[in-house]
Amino acid sequence: MALSGCSQATVEQWGRWGLPEAASDRAPFIGDLWNGAWIASMVVGVIVWGLIGWAVFRYRRRSESDVPRQVKYNLPMEILYTLVPFLVIGVLFFFTVQAQNGVLAKESDDAVHKIDVIGQKWSWTFNYMEAENPAIGVDAHTVGTVEEIPTLVLPLDKPVRFKLNSADVIHSFWIPDFYFKLDVIPGRTNTFDVTATKEGTFLGKCAELCGTYHAAMVFHVEVVPEAEYNEYVKQLAADGQTGALIVPEFPSTGPKLEG
Ligand SMILES: [Cu+2]
Fold first, then answer.
1. Which of 57, 62, 193, 209 is the most buried (most CB within 10 A)?
2. Separation of 72 CA from ligand 1 center, angstroms?
3. Membrane-spanning residues where (predicted)?
4. In this structure, which topology does domain 109-238 adopt according to CATH?
5. Rounded to the nearest whole angstrom, what is the distance from the C-alpha of residue 215 to the centroid of ligand 1?
């Protein structure tokens, strides 16, 4: 077990406090927050451990008869340990809001590819909304199932606007290498922009326990050059997967009656 921690990849991952290698333009916001939170916790931890050690050593029992002065309360101390946690939370809150604003910042409307995602029990539907894109000119979709894991194809270095909708229960759209996930909520559209910055294949998953086959709710992400992406969407449409699928108006989460 100890030796398995020695591989080059694992050592590099240690340097990122366990995060995978970043593959999106939004990753630095979350990565910096994650690193900063670890460093801040370490600093707080060292101070607390130091104080504990100091108190244990400094006020250790020196004789059998000497009992230290007994006190009921210490007002300055109590004010201090009421205020310090607020300070800690305040700092974390400030940087969290900053990271959130960075991650959710919008690209200009005409520069983005548009992909509408539907989470359904227990897979994903990807709608490529490219009818108005002169390079493609058509909408196309792909539907995954538990047996057939769907693939999401993304253009490299091009901003994509995701719209997330659910057909039934709350899911969460997560591509770990992008350092980002967003809830997929029935009756509500969540949206975010992201640019994939690394070519290759990644894994996506549902990050919200949504039911029996939640664990099967995975998808592949393939980041390819834009020309290849355009070809892929056109091919989907040519293969008959034309148009976009929509969420049923009244999603049914209960069992359906036969017939
Ligand atoms: Cu799910």
1. 193
2. 53
3. 37-57, 78-97
4. Immunoglobulin-like (2.60.40)
5. 8
